[in-house]
Specification:
Elements: H1 5-8, H2 11-15, E1 29-37, E2 40-45, E3 69-74, H3 84-90, E4 94-97, E5 102-108, E6 111-118, H4 123-140
Parallel strand pairs: 3-4
Antiparallel strand pairs: 1-2, 1-3, 4-5, 5-6
Length: about 140
């Protein structure tokens, strides 16, 4: 199922309304779930729902039994060692909005991949993506983190 990038571009506005980041703060994250209704998908912000540092296995937020994706806005370009758990535990794609870049983390033919939905990667971001994909793939195959 494809989601319109224009709709996903509203993720930051919906999830981060009124939130400011401190420059020296640890990575902050605000997440929501993607639900489908009448053939259209939308993001619903969910208070206190997070992927970074969440207990494993990941769970859907209370009251959201049927979701079609998880979407998070992060204050820094970080792909965590356990972000793949959205895919494996919840069986949905994971959308990450870093402000200037919007990506989706997916599994295709047993391999993790990042698909760029908007924005351009810097060289440092490309290296971070490759490192994160390698780590997550190793963890998926049973190697320790």
């Amino acid at each position: 199922m494809r989601y319109r990038v224009a709709s996903l571009g509203l993720i930051a506005a919906l999830l981060w309304a009124g939130v400011a980041f401190a420059a020296d703060a640890p990575v902050q994250e605000r997440c929501g779930v993607m639900v489908e209704e009448n053939g259209a998908s939308r993001v619903e912000a969910v208070d206190d729902y997070t992927v970074l540092g969440a207990a494993l296995p990941l769970q859907r937020p209370r009251g959201y039994d049927r979701i079609v994706g998880v979407s998070c806005v992060r204050s820094a370009f970080v792909i965590d060692d356990f972000d793949h758990r959205v895919l494996t535990d919840l069986s949905v794609p994971f959308y990450l909005d870093f402000g200037d870049v919007l990506i989706v983390l997916e599994i295709s033919n047993g391999r993790l991949q990042v698909r760029n939905l908007s924005g351009e990667f810097s060289e440092a971001q490309l290296q971070a993506i490759q490192t994160a994909l390698n780590r997550n793939q190793s963890i998926l195959q049973g190697d320790p983190p």
